[in-house]
Amino acid sequence: MRIGIAGIAGRMGRLLAEEVQAAGAILSGGTLRPGSRAEPPAGLPIQPDAAALFAASDIVIDFTHAEEAVPHAELAARSATPLVLGSSGLSAAQERAVAEAAQLVPVVHAANFAPGVNLVLALAEKLAAALPAEAYDAEIVEMHHRQKVDAPSGTALAMGRAVAAGRGTTLEAAGMESGRDGHTGARRTGSIGFAALRGGQVVGEHTLLFAAATEHIAITHRSFDRRSYAVGAVRAAQWIIGRRPGLYSMMDVLGMR
Ligand SMILES: NC(=O)C1=CN([C@@H]2O[C@H](COP(=O)(O)OP(=O)(O)OC[C@H]3O[C@@H](n4cnc5c(N)ncnc54)[C@H](OP(=O)(O)O)[C@@H]3O)[C@@H](O)[C@H]2O)C=CC1
Ligand SMILES: O=C(O)C1=N[C@H](C(=O)O)C[C@H](O)C1
């Protein structure tokens, strides 16, 4: 199996290259951002552009940037090359375009490829179904390294969606309260709150709180090593081969639904 890696010089790209090789797959190459000054990992094949990467690969893994998600999904559909997509911060229109491409080619898009986070997402939905939204306010706090460019994190949004699903609604309908500042007014019942911290080299921390008048429940997931994401993404790449076109999640890969 030939696996290609978009953004091979990135924090995730480098680890993905190692994990593809550790899994015994062939690393068909990687791409750099046009004009990039980043040093690619020594000895790894660099493709001139994304089209060449897709042509040389049986599967492509993309952990780059939201802006690349749609062009990469379209290339995947055109070349019938399954895609494992990890980038976060996609707009609603970008999410829709990826879903459209996934009608033609299998795509795994996950906010977080670490197995533990996916268990937390399942738990979040169950807790939200059991705890009345009128009494238990759902708040999500996340912290990441100072280089992260999008907020709230994709994982925090996935937690919000899981809570909304448990309450029989959507995140959009429930309402997001994000980045509170100034005279915000009182919290709206049923809305889902988000707070994003950035600093140092925190790999990724997420806490989901259900806060009521007399008690609160908190579930925290902490990632200490990006390798758990890379191992999960390579597992998704091995799983996706031979699947029907469609948009899959890490829950599908882990057999959790
Ligand atoms: N789903 C998951 O489990 C996880 C998802 N992520 C997500 O993966 C993405 C990448 O994270 P990370 O590896 O930390 O980021 P980095 O900035 O370290 O790496 C991004 C790589 O993509 C390249 N790139 C290509 N096109 C673009 C573009 N348009 N804008 C910016 N970079 C581009 C960069 O090139 P250059 O080197 O020239 O800048 C770089 O090599 C993020 O969206 C992050 O949120 C991260 C970890 C886990
Ligand atoms: O940018 C990161 O680093 C991470 N991004 C993902 C997200 O936005 O949730 C996953 C993980 O938290 C690390």
TrEMBL record:
Enzyme class: oxidoreductase
Residue ranges of domain Dihydrodipicolinate reductase C-terminal in the record: 116-254
Binding site for NADP(+): 33
Organism domain of life: Bacteria
Keyword hit for Protein transport: no
Residues annotated as the enzyme's active site: 144 (proton donor/acceptor), 148 (proton donor)
Pathway: Amino-acid biosynthesis; L-lysine biosynthesis via DAP pathway; (S)-tetrahydrodipicolinate from L-aspartate: step 4/4
Signal peptide as annotated in the record: none
Binding residues for (S)-2,3,4,5-tetrahydrodipicolinate: 145, 154-155
Molecular functions (GO terms): 4-hydroxy-tetrahydrodipicolinate reductase
Alphabetical keyword list: Amino-acid biosynthesis, Cytoplasm, Diaminopimelate biosynthesis, Lysine biosynthesis, NAD, NADP, Oxidoreductase
Family listed: Belongs to the DapB family.
Protein name: 4-hydroxy-tetrahydrodipicolinate reductase
Record lineage: Bacteria, Pseudomonadati, Pseudomonadota, Alphaproteobacteria, Acetobacterales
